[in-house]
Write a structure and sequence with these properties.
Layout lengths: L1 H18 L9 E10 L9 E10 L5 E15 L2 E20 L5 E16 L17 E17 L2 E13 L6 E12 L1
Length: 188
């Protein structure tokens, strides 16, 4: 009887861990896309963020993210809208802070670097009123911090809620850029 009980417990423990064995496996690659909002004084469709990422899973739920991002923030000067576009490439290392035992839900934090190019008012520096914009286009670089809430719908489909903060140097328009958004990741 004792041997039968041990056999049942061993069988049950190995079968329950095999059900979720395909989540966050080292070496898996995922493709991620999302849309979000760039923080500003007013919520507007003219202030947005969009991204596409490739993720590569590491050990213990950690992953490396290779991300390309477009952020647009619109500033108001009198009656004129001045868009500032940032095209960024990011390399972010993410690690799990909290997760449930079945790895259905997780909270992750990531840190990394960012570099790209910033374009002010489509490179037109003179407004129709004759005013001259002092800020110029230029290369931007800095750091990025990310927090993401991830919900596994299936083993290969993940819904994301993401908050991101970029601290960028190289121009004087906006050094501190917080964004928030939602996305989806497909694990290949």
């Amino acid at each position: 009887m004792k041997k039968l009980l041990i056999l049942i417990l061993v069988g049950w423990s190995t079968s329950s861990s095999m059900v979720y064995a395909q989540r966050l496996v080292k070496g898996q690659v995922g493709i991620e896309a999302g849309l979000g909002w760039v923080s500003s004084r007013q919520i507007s469709a003219k202030n947005f963020s969009s991204w596409v990422s490739i993720t590569s899973n590491k050990k213990n739920g950690k992953y490396m993210m290779y991300r390309v991002e477009l952020d647009r923030k619109t500033f108001i000067s009198g009656s004129y809208e001045i868009p500032v576009d940032q095209f960024l490439g990011k390399l972010i290392y993410n690690f799990t802070v909290l997760t449930d035992p079945r790895k259905t839900v997780s909270l992750n934090i990531g840190l990394g670097g960012a570099a790209g190019y910033s374009i002010v008012n489509h490179s037109r520096y003179v407004l129709p009123s004759g005013a001259v914009i002092q800020n110029r286009d230029g290369v931007v670089y800095g750091g990025s911090a990310t927090t993401s809430f991830e919900l596994f719908i299936t083993d290969s489909l993940i819904l994301l809620l993401r908050g991101n903060v970029d601290i960028l140097f190289g121009h004087s328009v906006s050094r501190f850029t917080p964004t928030a958004g939602a996305g989806i990741r497909i694990v290949l």
